Amino acid sequence: MSIIPKDGRILITGASSGIGEAYAIKLAGRGHKLSLLARRKDRLEALAQRLRSDFSADAETIVADLEDAVHLGRLEERLTRDDFSGVINNAGAGGLGFLADSSTQSVERTVTLNIVALTRLSRAALIAFKRKNAGLLVNIGSVLAHAPSPGGAIYSGSKAFVLNFTRSLQMEFAETDVSIQLVMPGPVRTEFFSSQGMDGSVFPAAAYLSADELVEAALAGLENRELVTVPSLPDLQSWERLETIRREFLAATMSGKVADRYGAGDPALE
Ligand SMILES: NC(=O)c1ccc[n+]([C@@H]2O[C@H](COP(=O)([O-])OP(=O)(O)OC[C@H]3O[C@@H](n4cnc5c(N)ncnc54)[C@H](OP(=O)(O)O)[C@@H]3O)[C@@H](O)[C@H]2O)c1
Protein backbone atom coordinates (compact mmCIF):
# COMPACT_ATOMS: atom_id res chain seq x y z
CA MET A 1 0.00 0.00 0.00
CA SER A 2 1.22 3.51 -0.82
CA ILE A 3 2.58 5.63 2.02
CA ILE A 4 0.78 8.67 0.53
CA PRO A 5 -2.61 8.97 2.25
CA LYS A 6 -5.63 9.17 -0.04
CA ASP A 7 -8.33 10.30 2.39
CA GLY A 8 -7.88 14.09 2.41
CA ARG A 9 -6.37 16.77 0.21
CA ILE A 10 -2.66 17.25 -0.38
CA LEU A 11 -1.55 20.89 -0.35
CA ILE A 12 1.28 21.68 -2.78
CA THR A 13 2.84 25.11 -2.36
CA GLY A 14 4.55 26.63 -5.38
CA ALA A 15 2.43 24.51 -7.74
CA SER A 16 2.37 27.02 -10.59
CA SER A 17 5.72 25.90 -12.07
CA GLY A 18 8.73 23.61 -11.82
CA ILE A 19 8.93 21.01 -9.08
CA GLY A 20 5.54 21.88 -7.55
CA GLU A 21 3.79 21.53 -10.90
CA ALA A 22 5.52 18.16 -11.45
CA TYR A 23 4.27 16.97 -8.02
CA ALA A 24 0.74 18.07 -8.98
CA ILE A 25 0.80 16.10 -12.25
CA LYS A 26 2.23 12.95 -10.65
CA LEU A 27 -0.13 12.99 -7.65
CA ALA A 28 -3.21 13.78 -9.72
CA GLY A 29 -2.27 10.87 -11.98
CA ARG A 30 -2.29 8.65 -8.89
CA GLY A 31 -5.76 9.78 -7.89
CA HIS A 32 -4.97 12.24 -5.09
CA LYS A 33 -7.16 15.24 -4.26
CA LEU A 34 -5.06 18.38 -4.51
CA SER A 35 -4.92 21.97 -3.32
CA LEU A 36 -2.60 23.90 -5.61
CA LEU A 37 -1.12 27.07 -4.11
CA ALA A 38 0.88 29.93 -5.66
CA ARG A 39 0.52 33.62 -6.52
CA ARG A 40 -0.05 33.29 -10.30
CA LYS A 41 -3.77 32.59 -10.64
CA ASP A 42 -3.73 32.02 -14.42
CA ARG A 43 -1.01 29.37 -14.19
CA LEU A 44 -2.72 27.59 -11.30
CA GLU A 45 -6.10 27.54 -13.02
CA ALA A 46 -4.63 26.27 -16.29
CA LEU A 47 -2.89 23.46 -14.37
CA ALA A 48 -6.02 22.56 -12.38
CA GLN A 49 -8.03 22.46 -15.62
CA ARG A 50 -5.43 20.18 -17.20
CA LEU A 51 -5.48 17.82 -14.19
CA ARG A 52 -9.28 17.69 -14.31
CA SER A 53 -9.37 16.84 -18.01
CA ASP A 54 -6.36 14.44 -18.05
CA PHE A 55 -7.05 12.59 -14.79
CA SER A 56 -10.58 13.64 -13.71
CA ALA A 57 -8.71 15.06 -10.73
CA ASP A 58 -10.25 16.89 -7.80
CA ALA A 59 -7.95 19.94 -7.88
CA GLU A 60 -8.72 23.25 -6.19
CA THR A 61 -6.56 26.36 -6.51
CA ILE A 62 -5.48 28.65 -3.68
CA VAL A 63 -4.10 31.97 -4.86
CA ALA A 64 -1.94 33.17 -1.99
CA ASP A 65 1.32 34.95 -1.32
CA LEU A 66 3.26 33.08 1.39
CA GLU A 67 5.24 36.23 2.13
CA ASP A 68 1.98 37.90 3.22
CA ALA A 69 1.20 37.44 6.91
CA VAL A 70 -2.57 37.57 6.36
CA HIS A 71 -2.51 34.90 3.62
CA LEU A 72 -0.20 32.72 5.70
CA GLY A 73 -2.42 33.04 8.78
CA ARG A 74 -5.53 32.03 6.80
CA LEU A 75 -3.76 28.99 5.40
CA GLU A 76 -2.49 27.92 8.83
CA GLU A 77 -5.98 28.20 10.20
CA ARG A 78 -7.34 26.03 7.36
CA LEU A 79 -4.59 23.42 7.79
CA THR A 80 -5.27 22.97 11.48
CA ARG A 81 -9.05 22.85 10.93
CA ASP A 82 -9.61 21.05 7.61
CA ASP A 83 -8.90 17.46 6.81
CA PHE A 84 -5.68 17.69 4.79
CA SER A 85 -3.79 14.43 4.49
CA GLY A 86 -0.54 15.91 3.21
CA VAL A 87 1.48 19.08 2.73
CA ILE A 88 4.32 19.54 0.27
CA ASN A 89 6.25 22.63 1.30
CA ASN A 90 7.84 23.35 -2.05
CA ALA A 91 7.54 27.11 -2.67
CA GLY A 92 10.93 28.75 -2.35
CA ALA A 93 13.10 31.42 -3.88
CA GLY A 94 16.79 32.04 -4.39
CA GLY A 95 17.44 35.42 -2.83
CA LEU A 96 20.88 35.34 -4.44
CA GLY A 97 23.29 38.27 -4.09
CA PHE A 98 25.93 39.59 -1.74
CA LEU A 99 24.27 40.38 1.58
CA ALA A 100 25.69 43.90 1.91
CA ASP A 101 24.31 44.73 -1.55
CA SER A 102 20.83 43.32 -0.84
CA SER A 103 17.85 45.36 0.27
CA THR A 104 16.24 44.74 3.64
CA GLN A 105 13.03 43.98 1.79
CA SER A 106 14.51 41.31 -0.50
CA VAL A 107 16.31 39.61 2.41
CA GLU A 108 13.13 39.60 4.46
CA ARG A 109 11.06 38.23 1.57
CA THR A 110 13.35 35.25 1.03
CA VAL A 111 13.65 34.46 4.73
CA THR A 112 9.86 34.73 5.10
CA LEU A 113 9.17 32.40 2.16
CA ASN A 114 11.96 29.84 2.64
CA ILE A 115 11.96 29.71 6.45
CA VAL A 116 8.98 31.38 8.14
CA ALA A 117 6.24 30.11 5.81
CA LEU A 118 7.69 26.59 5.65
CA THR A 119 7.97 26.50 9.45
CA ARG A 120 4.46 27.79 10.10
CA LEU A 121 2.84 25.51 7.52
CA SER A 122 4.76 22.51 8.88
CA ARG A 123 3.59 23.35 12.39
CA ALA A 124 -0.05 23.83 11.39
CA ALA A 125 -0.08 20.59 9.42
CA LEU A 126 1.62 18.64 12.20
CA ILE A 127 -0.89 19.86 14.80
CA ALA A 128 -3.65 18.28 12.68
CA PHE A 129 -1.60 15.17 11.81
CA LYS A 130 -0.70 14.58 15.44
CA ARG A 131 -4.36 14.74 16.41
CA LYS A 132 -5.27 11.94 13.98
CA ASN A 133 -1.88 10.17 14.05
CA ALA A 134 -1.69 10.23 10.24
CA GLY A 135 -0.46 12.51 7.49
CA LEU A 136 2.44 13.29 5.19
CA LEU A 137 4.76 16.30 5.32
CA VAL A 138 7.32 16.78 2.55
CA ASN A 139 9.79 19.65 2.83
CA ILE A 140 11.85 20.63 -0.19
CA GLY A 141 15.37 21.58 0.86
CA SER A 142 18.44 21.69 -1.37
CA VAL A 143 21.90 20.15 -1.59
CA LEU A 144 23.06 23.78 -1.23
CA ALA A 145 22.28 23.39 2.49
CA HIS A 146 25.81 21.97 2.47
CA ALA A 147 27.31 24.64 0.22
CA PRO A 148 27.92 28.05 1.75
CA SER A 149 28.87 30.41 -1.06
CA PRO A 150 29.44 34.11 -1.74
CA GLY A 151 26.09 35.47 -2.91
CA GLY A 152 24.29 32.43 -1.52
CA ALA A 153 24.25 33.35 2.16
CA ILE A 154 20.48 33.65 2.45
CA TYR A 155 19.63 30.73 0.16
CA SER A 156 22.19 28.28 1.52
CA GLY A 157 21.42 29.41 5.07
CA SER A 158 17.68 28.99 4.56
CA LYS A 159 18.10 25.49 3.13
CA ALA A 160 20.40 24.54 6.03
CA PHE A 161 17.49 25.59 8.25
CA VAL A 162 15.12 23.35 6.26
CA LEU A 163 17.57 20.45 6.70
CA ASN A 164 17.96 20.70 10.48
CA PHE A 165 14.34 21.72 11.03
CA THR A 166 12.94 18.76 9.09
CA ARG A 167 15.42 16.25 10.55
CA SER A 168 14.42 17.40 14.05
CA LEU A 169 10.71 17.02 13.25
CA GLN A 170 11.37 13.48 12.04
CA MET A 171 12.78 12.70 15.48
CA GLU A 172 9.79 14.32 17.21
CA PHE A 173 7.37 12.15 15.16
CA ALA A 174 9.48 8.98 15.01
CA GLU A 175 7.07 6.95 17.14
CA THR A 176 3.94 7.98 15.23
CA ASP A 177 2.27 7.15 11.90
CA VAL A 178 2.99 10.65 10.56
CA SER A 179 5.49 10.56 7.67
CA ILE A 180 8.00 13.38 7.18
CA GLN A 181 10.32 13.41 4.19
CA LEU A 182 13.13 15.83 3.38
CA VAL A 183 13.88 16.10 -0.34
CA MET A 184 17.20 17.67 -1.29
CA PRO A 185 17.36 18.44 -5.00
CA GLY A 186 20.57 19.28 -6.82
CA PRO A 187 20.17 21.44 -9.94
CA VAL A 188 16.75 21.07 -11.60
CA ARG A 189 15.70 22.68 -14.90
CA THR A 190 12.88 25.03 -13.81
CA GLU A 191 12.08 28.75 -13.83
CA PHE A 192 14.00 29.04 -10.56
CA PHE A 193 17.05 30.53 -12.28
CA SER A 194 15.36 32.65 -14.98
CA SER A 195 12.95 34.17 -12.43
CA GLN A 196 16.01 35.65 -10.73
CA GLY A 197 17.62 36.94 -13.87
CA MET A 198 20.12 34.07 -14.18
CA ASP A 199 20.58 31.89 -17.23
CA GLY A 200 20.71 28.13 -17.03
CA SER A 201 24.51 28.03 -16.99
CA VAL A 202 24.90 28.38 -13.21
CA PHE A 203 25.81 24.67 -13.14
CA PRO A 204 27.16 22.51 -15.98
CA ALA A 205 24.35 21.47 -18.34
CA ALA A 206 24.88 17.80 -17.48
CA ALA A 207 24.24 18.48 -13.77
CA TYR A 208 20.52 19.22 -14.21
CA LEU A 209 17.58 16.85 -13.71
CA SER A 210 14.16 17.63 -15.11
CA ALA A 211 11.43 18.44 -12.59
CA ASP A 212 9.67 15.27 -13.72
CA GLU A 213 12.74 13.10 -12.96
CA LEU A 214 13.25 14.81 -9.61
CA VAL A 215 9.69 14.25 -8.46
CA GLU A 216 9.48 10.68 -9.75
CA ALA A 217 12.60 9.87 -7.69
CA ALA A 218 11.33 11.79 -4.64
CA LEU A 219 8.09 9.77 -4.69
CA ALA A 220 10.02 6.51 -5.11
CA GLY A 221 12.16 7.50 -2.09
CA LEU A 222 9.00 8.22 -0.12
CA GLU A 223 7.51 4.83 -0.96
CA ASN A 224 10.82 3.26 0.17
CA ARG A 225 10.30 5.03 3.53
CA GLU A 226 13.39 7.20 3.04
CA LEU A 227 13.57 10.09 5.51
CA VAL A 228 15.98 12.00 3.29
CA THR A 229 15.88 11.72 -0.48
CA VAL A 230 18.65 13.15 -2.64
CA PRO A 231 17.56 12.15 -6.14
CA SER A 232 20.80 13.03 -7.95
CA LEU A 233 23.14 11.34 -5.44
CA PRO A 234 24.38 8.09 -7.05
CA ASP A 235 25.73 6.49 -3.88
CA LEU A 236 23.67 6.67 -0.68
CA GLN A 237 26.83 5.94 1.30
CA SER A 238 27.99 9.57 0.80
CA TRP A 239 24.94 10.75 2.74
CA GLU A 240 25.45 8.11 5.43
CA ARG A 241 29.12 9.11 5.82
CA LEU A 242 28.09 12.75 6.18
CA GLU A 243 25.63 11.79 8.93
CA THR A 244 28.29 9.71 10.72
CA ILE A 245 30.76 12.59 10.60
CA ARG A 246 28.12 15.00 11.96
CA ARG A 247 27.48 12.62 14.90
CA GLU A 248 31.23 12.18 15.54
CA PHE A 249 31.76 15.95 15.41
CA LEU A 250 28.98 16.55 17.93
CA ALA A 251 30.24 13.83 20.30
CA ALA A 252 33.76 15.30 20.11
CA THR A 253 32.51 18.76 21.14
CA MET A 254 31.33 17.31 24.48
CA SER A 255 34.92 17.04 25.79
CA GLY A 256 34.35 19.63 28.53
CA LYS A 257 37.78 21.17 27.99
CA VAL A 258 39.33 23.78 25.77
CA ALA A 259 41.24 22.26 22.88
CA ASP A 260 45.04 22.24 23.17
CA ARG A 261 45.43 24.42 20.07
CA TYR A 262 44.04 27.38 22.05
CA GLY A 263 46.94 27.12 24.45
CA ALA A 264 44.98 26.19 27.57
CA GLY A 265 47.52 25.25 30.20
CA ASP A 266 50.46 26.07 27.94
CA PRO A 267 52.79 28.28 30.08
CA ALA A 268 54.47 29.60 26.92
CA LEU A 269 51.22 31.32 26.00
CA GLU A 270 50.41 32.79 29.44
N1 LIG B 1 15.53 24.35 -9.44
C1 LIG B 1 16.55 23.95 -8.70
O1 LIG B 1 17.69 23.78 -9.20
C2 LIG B 1 16.35 23.65 -7.24
C3 LIG B 1 17.37 22.99 -6.55
C4 LIG B 1 17.23 22.72 -5.19
C5 LIG B 1 16.07 23.09 -4.54
N2 LIG B 1 15.08 23.73 -5.23
C6 LIG B 1 13.88 24.12 -4.48
O2 LIG B 1 12.73 23.62 -5.10
C7 LIG B 1 11.60 24.43 -4.78
C8 LIG B 1 10.81 24.72 -6.05
O3 LIG B 1 11.62 25.45 -6.93
P1 LIG B 1 11.54 25.30 -8.52
O4 LIG B 1 12.89 24.93 -8.98
O5 LIG B 1 10.40 24.48 -8.91
O6 LIG B 1 11.35 26.84 -8.91
P2 LIG B 1 10.19 27.62 -9.65
O7 LIG B 1 9.84 26.94 -10.93
O8 LIG B 1 10.65 29.03 -9.69
O9 LIG B 1 8.94 27.46 -8.66
C9 LIG B 1 8.81 28.21 -7.49
C10 LIG B 1 7.36 28.14 -7.07
O10 LIG B 1 7.20 28.86 -5.85
C11 LIG B 1 6.10 29.76 -5.99
N3 LIG B 1 6.29 30.92 -5.15
C12 LIG B 1 7.35 31.78 -5.17
N4 LIG B 1 7.15 32.77 -4.28
C13 LIG B 1 5.95 32.51 -3.70
C14 LIG B 1 5.19 33.20 -2.72
N5 LIG B 1 5.62 34.33 -2.17
N6 LIG B 1 4.00 32.69 -2.35
C15 LIG B 1 3.54 31.55 -2.90
N7 LIG B 1 4.21 30.85 -3.86
C16 LIG B 1 5.40 31.35 -4.24
C17 LIG B 1 6.07 30.11 -7.47
O11 LIG B 1 4.78 30.51 -7.90
P3 LIG B 1 4.26 32.00 -8.11
O12 LIG B 1 5.38 32.80 -8.69
O13 LIG B 1 3.09 31.82 -9.04
O14 LIG B 1 3.83 32.46 -6.76
C18 LIG B 1 6.43 28.77 -8.09
O15 LIG B 1 5.27 27.98 -8.22
C19 LIG B 1 12.16 25.66 -4.07
O16 LIG B 1 11.99 25.50 -2.67
C20 LIG B 1 13.64 25.62 -4.41
O17 LIG B 1 14.43 26.24 -3.42
C21 LIG B 1 15.18 24.02 -6.56
Description:
The structure is a single chain. With 270 residues, the chain is an alpha/beta fold. The chain has one domain: 3-Layer(aba) Sandwich (Rossmann fold), CATH 3.40.50. 44% of the residues lie in helices and 15% in strands. Strands 3-2-1-4-5-6-9 form a seven-stranded parallel beta sheet, sandwiched between helices. A two-stranded parallel sheet has the order 7-8. The N and C termini lie far apart (67 Å). NADP nicotinamide-adenine-dinucleotide phosphate binds at residues 13-20, 38-40, 43, 65-67, 90-93, 113, 140, 142, 185, 187-188, 190-192, 195. NADP nicotinamide-adenine-dinucleotide phosphate (NAP) binds at residues 13-20, 38-40, 43, 65-67, 90-93, 113, 140, 142, 185, 187-188, 190-192, 195.
List ligands, each type once. NADP nicotinamide-adenine-dinucleotide phosphate
The CATH topology: Rossmann fold
The CATH class designation is Alpha Beta
Q: Which whole number gives the mean pLDDT?
A: 95
Q: Supply the CATH superfamily name.
A: NAD(P)-binding Rossmann-like Domain
Cα radius of gyration in angstroms: 20 Å
Number of strands: 9
Count of spatially separate domains: 1
Number of DSSP helices? Answer: 7
List segments where confidence is low: pLDDT < 50 over at least 5 consecutive residues.
none
Main sheet strand line-up? 3-2-1-4-5-6-9
- Portion in beta strands: 5-15%
**Secondary-structure arrangement, i.e. CATH architecture:** 3-Layer(aba) Sandwich
Main sheet characteristics: 7 strands, parallel
Distance between the amino and carboxyl termini: 67 Å
Query: What shape does the CA trace take?
Result: globular
* Helical/strand content category: alpha/beta
Protein name: SDR family oxidoreductase
Family: Belongs to the short-chain dehydrogenases/reductases (SDR) family.
InterPro entries: NAD(P)-bd_dom_sf (IPR036291), Sc_DH/Rdtase_CS (IPR020904), SDR_fam (IPR002347)
GO cellular component, one term: membrane
